Amino acid sequence: MGLRALTLALALAAGPALADTIRIATYSPDLSRDGPGLLLRDILSGKDEQIAAVVQVIAAADADVLLLTGFDWDHDGATLSAFADLLEAAGAGYPHRHASRPNSGMATGLDLDGDGRTGTGDDAQGFGLFSGQGGMVLLSRLPLGEVTDHSGLLWRDMPGNLMPKASPEVDEVQRLSSTAHWEVPVSVGGTTLTLMAWSATPPIFDGPEDRNGRRNHDEAVFWLTRLPPDRFVLMGDTNLDPVDGDGRREGIAALLDRVQDPRPKSEGAALAPQDGANAVQKGDPALDTADWPDADGPGNLRVDVVLPSPDLTVTGSGVLWPAPGRPLADTVAAASRHRLAWVDLELPLTGTATAASSPRPSP
């Protein structure tokens, strides 16, 4: 158990009214492979440099609750267990975990994308070459309550949806979530914090019907009907920058109107070259969380978010993207195209009165 986790555990056991700061983070570590079992193979080999870099990033972030997107799922949970063992050995143990079957790679037997073929990655409920490719994982030092999984909701059944016209057969099976939508209660002393986690489809890779763009929009808008009155955090990979890049931004804009946006920044993103696609962007580059190609790609974008409800007290935030030459800079770059985004929240641990806690050091 790390020092931060030990401090939190002692505070919870102490009993008197206290407040403490917990760190909530989201990260897309590119822990997905081209076939089932390959990620587990690479984890168990102990020789994969990218996996080793991801472990270092997670350990450095020191999050109390961490959502991982883009992590391959398997029925027995062997991959997650093996990865959790690596984290434990690195001093980043997470005893509470959730990883239910995602829609990504879930075969439908239908031609969902209308290309005249079936059985391709685009014909799964969410893009994937096998069931569970690029799923989601929630890791926590704090107890998790019963998870509400909305991943089975049919797209057609979402009120006000933008689903393009499709055959009756497709209408009857097509789910809204490309990966998953989870509501997860987290126990923090006498307080419950509700996490609302999702990983959306990219709003590109389609045709004039804008199927992916419409779905990305609706995956965000879905949460507008589910937001609790207080103490919640929206988090995950939106695959949509609120300002730059492709996509329909009305949905994420509506969500941002209902939450706090701490606007986590990093020195590394601020110092990234502003050429190619980056040169024509309008958003603050310091907010970016993904380092994508600038010459023939979308450039750097802000797609990984942690958005607390308005009633929560934010004491810090950031993106783990060090400037070139700084400690961990090469490790972060080797781990993933995405960067870990984190937000610190002050929450009461027990009782009704609170006492201010010390700020947490940035990773």
Automatic annotation (TrEMBL):
Pfam families per the UniProt record, alphabetical: Exo_endo_phos
Keyword Nuclease (UniProt): yes
Domain Endonuclease/exonuclease/phosphatase, first and last residues per copy: 47-338
Record carries keyword Hydrolase: yes
Molecular-function annotations in GO: endonuclease activity; exonuclease activity
Keywords: Endonuclease, Exonuclease, Hydrolase, Nuclease, Signal
Region (Disordered): 259-298
Signal peptide location: 1-19
Protein name, as recorded: Endonuclease/Exonuclease/phosphatase family protein
